[in-house]
Design a protein that fits this description.
Length: 503
């Protein structure tokens, strides 16, 4: 019933305060597992969005562009034609009439509605490879990379290591539409993954700070890999492709050839069609004319622009591509741990058999069902003891008996720690140690059990190779031949005597 502007303002302030209390209450609660923590962050993100939208509505009310709030305050103060008491009794009559028509009306407490925000389970979609946000799924981007002109035939694990390092891509291939679309796809996926797994990250703030730093570096020509940029003081500078200062006429520019002209036009986002003379004329326009003053008919149709700090930047330009590279690298820094875990997971799967992969998949499904069980109770385990077969911590005497408090580190496994003698002995046959031995070029045989140092493993492998060289079968010295008289010779002596005619 209370539809006045002041009542709407009061209700909005109350909603903001209630949401802030719910956010603080939710963040103080310790999540039970990763799934619960992810849902918690998404609930908080949803409530923050509600606070922002309600605050925007309050700002609009306080700006009072139509003077509605000012008029309502004046009416409540009795500044109208009827006076203070007339306004009061009119409002009182309105309230009584309302309750007479609606006798069952009561004050509605919105607290219960807001409490439901803490109970709802957000719907978040992940692919099977992403394992509910634990790993990245970049197989489509990997296929796009290896099937492109700027890509290379590398393994998926090598791609995960190097996809953020763009310095090895030739400069002329970076100016193509295919490379620009590839960067757009990577940015789209990384942003989507970050929003799903870390909803409380402020991407707008990260990108805003990055763009300010990028502008300063670009103006000074200090962007890594883009030291010779093409937007200096609004003019085109084609130092990396064609230096227009050396050409005074279109005819002289035509001598560089159609391919060079095409590369220069692509770098500026200009059309590349037509005869060689038309290309040269189109490029020669940029020598004395800023890009923003050139007729738009010379640019590629449908070319998108990247707005940065209020100024449009041609999407086909070096600056736009360099900015997308910088954004991708910043997102990779934020997701550094996830990228490392993704690579380890891929290497682990490559070392597993089909039966082991199926068993691991079933184990992950059981673990996911266990984590999603709302009735699961927290077990008191202050000593962080391992869980037994019954889902409870094992006895402390058993923990000491098996030496689970003893740490073993393996340098071949990347200084990975193994707790307890049993886990340490088993790890020599597991995927992590096998992968480390393959990287060293050493077979993982029983001879190398209990060897965890890279240097010791290399020295032992050298000694084994030397010993095998001494015991190796040498037919020239050890193969035996017999002459007609029954004399025994080795192969080398027998051949020499036979050549001399003595046998």
């Amino acid at each position: 019933m209370s539809s006045t502007l002041l009542e709407v303002t009061r209700a909005a302030h109350e909603d903001v305060e209630r949401l802030e209390r719910l956010i603080a209450r939710e963040l103080q609660r310790e999540a039970e597992n990763n799934r619960d923590r992810l849902f918690q962050n998404h609930r908080v993100r949803h409530m923050i969005d509600l606070v922002i939208s309600t605050t925007d509505k309050l700002v609009y009310i306080y700006e009072d562009k139509d003077n509605a709030r000012k008029d309502e305050i004046a009416a409540l103060g009795g500044q109208g034609a009827n006076g203070l008491f007339s306004a009061f009794y009119e409002r009182l009559k309105e309230i009584r009439d309302y309750h007479r028509r609606h006798p069952a009306a009561r004050v509605v407490d919105a607290t219960e509605d807001y409490e439901e925000l803490l109970k709802e389970e957000p719907h978040i979609e992940f692919s099977g490879e992403e394992a509910f946000g634990r790993y990245l799924d970049m197989h489509e981007l990997y296929n796009e990379y290896i099937n492109s002109k700027f890509g290379a035939l590398v393994e998926y694990t090598a791609y995960l290591d190097s996809f953020s390092q763009t310095s090895n891509i030739p400069f002329n291939l970076k100016l193509t539409r295919q490379y620009r679309e590839y960067l757009e796809h990577i940015l789209e996926y990384l942003i989507s993954f970050l929003e799903r797994t870390q909803p409380l990250q402020d991407l707008e703030r990260i990108f805003s700070k990055l763009e300010n730093e990028f502008d300063e570096q670009w103006a000074d020509g200090k962007v890594p890999g883009w030291e010779n940029n093409d937007l200096e003081n609004g003019h085109a500078s084609q130092e990396s492709v064609i230096d227009l200062d050396y050409y005074n006429t279109v005819e002289e520019l035509m001598e560089v050839g159609p391919e060079k002209l095409k590369e220069a036009l692509v770098a500026l986002g200009l059309k590349v069609g037509g005869t060689i003379q038309q290309r040269a004329e189109r490029l020669f326009l940029t020598k004395h004319t800023p890009l923003d003053q050139i007729d738009r008919k010379h640019f590629v149709k449908g070319s998108r622009t990247l707005v940065q700090n209020g100024a449009p930047v041609q999407s086909g330009s070096k600056k736009a591509i360099a900015l997308m590279e910088a954004k991708m690298q910043r997102l990779c820094e934020v997701l550094k741990e996830t990228i490392i875990q993704t690579k380890e997971n891929v290497e682990k799967k490559q070392a597993l058999t089909y039966e082991e992969m199926e068993a691991e998949r079933e184990e992950e499904e059981i673990q996911a069902d266990t984590e999603s069980d709302d009735e699961e109770q927290q077990i008191y385990n202050p000593l962080k003891l391992p869980m037994g077969w019954d889902g409870k911590p094992i006895p402390y005497w058993l923990y000491k008996l098996h030496g689970l408090g003893q740490e073993f580190k393996c340098e071949i496994c990347g200084n990975h720690s193994y707790w307890g003698r049993r886990a340490y002995e088993r790890h020599f046959k597991e995927w992590r140690h096998q992968h480390g031995m393959r990287c060293l070029g050493i077979p993982n045989t029983k001879n190398f059990n209990e060897i965890t140092s890279i240097q010791e493993a290399k020295e032992l492998w050298e000694r084994i190779q030397e010993r095998q060289g001494l015991n190796k079968w040498r037919p020239d010295l050890e193969e035996e031949y017999e002459d007609r008289e029954g004399n025994i010779y080795n192969k080398k002596t027998y051949a020499d005597l036979q050549r001399q005619g003595l046998i």
